[in-house]
Amino acid sequence: MKWRSNKNRPTYRTMVPFLAAGETMTDEEYEIWYDQNSVDLTNLEGLEVVEDISTLQWLGDAMGKGGGSALISVPEGYEAYGRIFFPFENGEFRTDDPTSYEYRYRSWAEVALSNNKIPHALMQSASISTERDGRLVSSGPDSTFGSDLIAELSKFTSKPSATTFLIWEGYGNINRKTSARLPLLELPLGRRCFALTGHSDHFVRPPIRIQLCTPSDRAWCYGSDTDLDYGYVACSQECLDAMRENDSIEIYQIDPAAMIWHDSDVINSQMGTTD
């Protein structure tokens, strides 16, 4: 069978290559391409699959009790909670080479102030930014930002080498053949996740966005979602204060019960739209 789309194909084939007009691919060619381009969760260097997810049930039991609050993404019961803002990415022409384009990151506070808005813990991207401000790094922390974040968190656990990473099953680049047998942990919003374990450094390495991670001593917990352009951390007050002192991490302390919907920024939404 020759094919160019995802019609009439096995259910695990969630990835389709871009082909030139008129170009086709046989099933055998597709299988080779699929295995080369999809992510095999059972074969990630330095990470092992958690087969017994009963040890993680405490997460499901401690999450989802706050409606649209931070407790959708991180569990209740911690001393302090923070909201982490993923930066805006803005492309600009280089001053030393007008023909070359380069990207730089901008904090939410910088974007808000440039648009005469007020930076605060419950701000929303739509209420503080315009199209000229660039796009959000909505896939999560980039390697630099993520490295600084996980470095701070790792100082506050005795078990950095035993960190659990949860990955939502819904990402299309997961190899469905090798992951079919893997157990899934149910989280709020119907997010069923695969569980992997390894060193906390892998926070910035996995080829798929992390839904949640926490060390085995439960000293802290980081959580986000594919639909969010920010993350949450639940930890000790000392840990949160350390992150707030790190200039490369934009984080605000929050009440974990505070609602974070797209229209919840009442401070800036009442100030009118930006030009």
**Number of strand elements:** 14
Radius of gyration over alpha carbons?
21 Å
Query: Strand-and-helix sequence, N→C?
Result: EEHEHEEEHHEHEHEEEEEHEH
Number of continuous helical runs: 8
Instruction: Assign a percent range to the helix content.
Output: 10-25%
Q: Structural class of the secondary structure composition?
A: alpha+beta
- How far from one another are the termini? 54 Å
> What's the number of structural domains?
2
Mean pLDDT: 85
- Specify the overall morphology: globular
Largest β-sheet summary: 9 strands, antiparallel
- Which stretches are low in confidence, meaning pLDDT under 50 for 5 or more residues running? 1-13
What is the percentage of strand-forming residues? 15-25%
Question: Could you please describe the fold and organization of this structure?
Answer:
It is a single chain. This protein has 275 residues and is α+β, with helices and mostly antiparallel strands. The protein has two domains: 2-37, no CATH class; 48-87 and 142-269, no CATH class. It is built from eight helices and 14 strands. The strands form three sheets. Strands 3, 4, 8, 9, 10, 11, 12, 13 and 14 form a nine-stranded antiparallel β-sheet that branches. The protein has a three-stranded antiparallel β-sheet with strand order 6-5-7. A hairpin with a 7-residue loop joins strand 5 and strand 6. The longest helix has 12 residues, at 143-154. The chain is globular. Mean pLDDT is 85; it is low at 1-13.
